[in-house]
Amino acid sequence: MLQSLLVERFRLKLHRETRSVSGLVLVVAKNGPKLKPANQEAKASISWIGRKMSSASISMEALANSLARQLKQVVVDGTSLKGSFEINFEYGPDDTGPSIFSAIQTLGLRLQSAKVPVDVAVIDHIEKVPTEN
Fold it and tell me: Per-residue pLDDT for 115 more than 70?
């Protein structure tokens, strides 16, 4: 709805493309995952309380998205693990506890730096002054 308004009032023209940016990929560690399958009756949810993450049922894609919000950078799922898992971990601030990277490794997963594909909207044209109603 907002995009339609921008097209109508500001003559917005854009296209979408995929670009490679620096980010992180969530992958299975070399000793394999240490994940407990979620109870089939558990609802998909995730809870971050301070530096503690808890979920009774979460997919790897949802975990990657949640980690992206916590780390404030792009994180994509590269685990190829299907289904939902019960995941709990805690990490400490700075030097007083494990980093989020170390906490993830206790799950048999790891975050590795990589160029990752991201879909972006590229503005080709937009008018500075909107048209009248």
Answer: yes
DSSP, collapsed to helix, strand or coil, labels residue 102 as: helix
Q: Summarize pLDDT for 44-95 with one digit per residue, the tens.
A: 888 999 889 999 999 999 999 999 999 999 999 999 999 999 999 988 876 6
Within 10 angstroms of residue 126's Cβ, the number of other Cβ atoms is 13
Q: Spell out the residues 6+ positions from residue 30 whose beta carbon is closer than 8 angstroms to its own.
A: none
CA distances from 3 to 6, 8, 101 (A): 5, 9, 38
Q: Which residue has the tokens 């909207």?
A: 121
19 C-beta neighbours (distance < 10 Å), count: 11
User: Quick one: tokens of 55?
Assistant: 């979920």
Helices (H) and strands (E) in the chain, counts: 3, 7
Q: What is the DSSP string of 38-84?
A: PPTTSPPEEEEETTEEEEEEE-HHHHHHHHHHHHTS-EEE-S---S-
